[in-house]
Each structure stands twice: as structure tokens, then as C-alpha cells.
Amino acid sequence: MPLSLSRPDLLRTQNFINARWCEGRDGRTLPVSDPALDVTIASVPDSGAADARAAVDAAYAAGPAWRAVPAKQRAQILKRWNALILAHQEDLGRLISREQGKPLAEGRGEVAYAASYVEWFAEEAVRAYGDIIPAPVSGRRMMVLKEPVGVVAAITPWNFPAAMIARKIAPALAAGCTVVAKPAEDTPLTSLALARLAEEAGVPAGVLNIVVASRERAAEVVDVWLADGRVRKITFTGSTPVGKHLARESAGTLKKLSLELGGNAPFIVFDDADLDKAVDGLMAAKFRNGGQTCVSPNRIFVHQLVHDAFVEKLAARVGALKVGPATDPGSQIGPMINERAVQKIERHVRDAIAKGAHAVVGGERHQLGGNYFAPTVLIDVDATMACSCEETFGPVVAINRFSDEMEVIAAANDTPFGLAAYFFSGDVKRIWRLAEALQTGIVGINEGALAAEAAPFGGIKESGYGREGSRYGLDDYMQTKYLCQTL
């Protein structure tokens, strides 16, 4: 079915470079598909190195003027952008749902979430304070300034096409940086629509540039940015192998990096937990976006004394989830992003069952076919199974039993990743023990919904470094300059 928007000009199908909407330099194109229907809904440029260089040229040329704009004026532009995003929440939500597949209610919610970052960093722009340092000798003044890092290259994933690009672009612009960005090949339309609204809000020419490329040509685009010394920061959300590649290749010009990479989040339910709240928390954390989130619980540990009761409550909730396309207003779980994603989920489930796990709910592709997978609950899962070692990135709950607190802490930390963790307990002393012992950048305590614009989002270990959101997120786009003056 056709993509209908109340503002048709938000459906952009060209690169945005130096305030111009333009085709790719070599004329190659890339289809954008609806994962629910597996039909093409638009065609966008499949850009290459020449487009990537043109974007950097524009961003670098625009840099001096943009960093000289007073912070209050930059904040006003961001506030106008925020207002426009919220004013077009329905259209943007439809774009997200059609190209990414999530239910329309989630698409609308993501738009509001994206806007919250724009609003937050508009307000933080005027609070990029420096310091006055008491001088150790007389006749000297010592000061610290915060300055924009320069040109920022933002590389964003497909699972949250509005929120992820807003979470990177908003702090960069607030800090006085200029941006070149490459959205994921599966979901470029939302990013381009946001660029159109940023243009309308008054973001000057060259300050924000969007270049679209296929998975096959992504390296060609990004390698230009990695090698170019004018690009001073890379911000990336995606897989750990790609993050490691970016870290290695950016070393030649010593760029600053923010890397939000893979996860393998534990979710622990103790015998003293409120089971209804724990089930609510798991449903919120696991089935948002069909399980296609980096902080989605991947390994569920339930104390043996409450295991059966918890599984019974959870299975009833999961079995009642409605699967369907975004066009169905009752849908709670949409399609996976593509066939590759479904194949990975299927491989994980089959591997677990072959090694002794049991499917209480689901366990196979959904009857709708295509890119749909049935919401699934597996029990008797152990650490030898693929679903315990790799991100499943789908609507599969894999449950392990445990009996001892120290045992489950060790199991939760037994992973190279460290993005998020969750646990449910009514014991105050245990809460503080677990909060300190879990090796992750984010911990949910009796809570399944973690993300907020005011909170620092990011991981440790092989889940990356740097933080997005909060006042710490603005610091990641700034550098510290020390001034020493003799009077």
C-alpha cells in the first residue's frame, strides 16, 4: 500500500549536502522496503566516496561560522527543530513504521523520544560551562574553556531511525559541531525527513549533511571519513565488530569516538521479587520493538523457588501478544527488519532446543510468514546455547534457573559485553550489592524501561565507551582547553 503523509515533502529520497537535496554522484540507487509487506516504498541514493567527501567539505566549511553562533541562538534553532518534530509526529511515526516495521504506536512513541533529546540538548547548549582554577602562584589566571570538537561523523542503526540520529545530531549541534551522517540502509527515510525539518528550523547550510549508502558501499563512505583529518569525532551505534574497526581505522588521525555497541543483557529475578512487577518489567524491556533493541534482556535468570510461577505468568502475557503489521492498530509485535534477522532468531531457537531447552510459547516463525517470528519463551536454557552467547535481537525470552546470588552474579558478568543489566528484588541490601557488582554501564533495579534523555546511555567492556544523553552526552562533543594568563 502507498505511503501516505499529510506533508508529502517529508518523504525525501535524495542526499542532503550543503543545504541541497541531491542525487548520488554516480547515479546508483538503493531500494527501501517495507519489512511487513516486503515491497519497495522508495528509492534513495547509493552513495560513494565522492558524496562522502562533498559532505565533509560542506561541514568543514560551515564549521567556523556555526561554532561562532552564540549558544543561545543555537539553542533556539534546536528548539524550533524540536517543535517541528512534535508537530509532525504522525507523519514521522508512519515513516518509521513503514520502513522499520514497528507498530504505529511505537513509531509515534519513538518520535516523542527523539524529540526529547533535541529539547534536552537545546537546553544544555547554554550550560557548557568552563572553570576558573585557583592559581598556585600570584599574578596568574588559570581558566578552562569547553569548545566543539569540530566535524562529527554520525553512523546510525536501523532499529530506532529517529531516536538514534537525534541522540547524536542534537548534542553535536548544541556543542557547536557540524555533522556528516550516514543512516542505516534499511531506514534512511526517517533521517532524511528529520533533516528536512532541521532545514526548516533554520540549521544553516553545511551544518547538517546526510549521505545514504547501501550495506555494500557503507565502508566506501565511512572510510573517507575515517581517513579525513578534518573529521574529529566518530559516533556510532551498532555491532561490536564494526565498532572495533572504526576504533582501529580512526587511530590514524586520533579522532574522538563514542561507540554504543552490542549487548548481552542479563535480567535477574530473585525469590523475594514482586513477580508481577518483574513480568511487567520483562515485557517492557524485552518486547519493545520486537526485541530489536541493544538493551533488550538476552539472558533471563530466575531463582528456582519462583521459576515455575514466573514462567506461568510470563507465558500467559507473551502468548497474548498480537503480531501484525503497523497498519493494524492492534499490533504489538511487528516484523523483524529483514530475512537475515529472522534466520538468526530461528538458528538460536533451534540450537537451544537441540541442546535441551523447551519452548513454552512460540518457538517458530509466525503463521503470517515473511519477516514475522512468533513471540517465544524458552526454558531450561544454559550458557552453552547460542542464545546465551550472542544477541538474539528478536522476541525470544531465554530463561535460566539459578539458586545462589554469587552464582548468578558470576553468570551475569560472564560475557565480554557490558551495556545493560536488570534485576528484581525486594531486599535493600541485595539491591546495593547487585548494583555495584554487575559489570554494565546501565542497571535497571525493579525497572524495565531505562532510557531517558536526562540519563547517560552507554556501556563498558566490548559494549563500547562514551555516553549519549544527559550532560555527559554534551561533553562527548566538546574538548577541554586550558588557558594560562600572566597578569
From TrEMBL:
Mind telling me which PROSITE patterns this protein's record contains?
A: ALDEHYDE_DEHYDR_GLU
Which residues does the entry assign to the active site, renumbered to this chain? E260
Oxidoreductase is among the record's keywords: yes
Start and end of every Aldehyde dehydrogenase domain?
Answer: 21-482
Q: Which UniProt keywords apply?
A: Oxidoreductase
Name the Pfam families on file. Aldedh
Q: Which family does it belong to?
A: Belongs to the aldehyde dehydrogenase family.
Q: What is this protein called?
A: NAD-dependent succinate-semialdehyde dehydrogenase
Provide the species name: Pelomonas caseinilytica
